[in-house]
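Researcher: We're reviewing a set of sequences before deciding which ones to prioritize for further study. For each one, I'd like a predicted 3D structure that I can look through quickly. This is LRP chaperone MESD. If possible, include the structure in token form so it fits the rest of the review sheet.
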Amino acid sequence: PPKKKDIRDYNDADMARLLEQWEKDDDIEEGDLPEHKRPPAPIDFSKIDPGKPESILKLTKKGKTLMMFVTVSGNPTEKETEEITSLWQGSLFNANYDVQRFIVGSNRAIFMLRDGGYAWEIKDFLINQERCADVTLEGQVYPGKGADGNEKVKNKTKPEKAKKKKDVEKKSDGVKEDNRATSQREEL
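Model: Here's the predicted structure for LRP chaperone MESD, in token form for your review sheet.
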């Protein structure tokens, strides 16, 4: 058996071993574990509709934390964005959805959901709001009621930042711009 030491003589390694011994005998309930250590919920494949890929995402995100980005239409100040998204959060709270809200810009907010299975229902609520320009969920952008006419394209991907003028001038010699790898090599 290991030699007994006085507790005052313990160093960090001894304390770590002692903590491991205590945790080994501990019975931690599954609900108390952090989300990344919990086992994933079993997926019932009979509920999946092959015509709707969103049904698969709903089932795989159930019970997991998920974030969605919401853009407020018009040109609101940060205070207006705070007030508008606060109203939306209150409406969702009254409908028993656990949503936290974080303002990330003058017209953008993040809605964090404890249970990602409800994300598509919340997205449907948000895009029907008058001041909602768009909702970004799992990489998909869903235009809202407040979107401009040129933005109303269902499920478009997030637009890239505007290209610099010199990049546009380089590509203006007839080369088609896309995301595919080409066999031609371009010199920079």
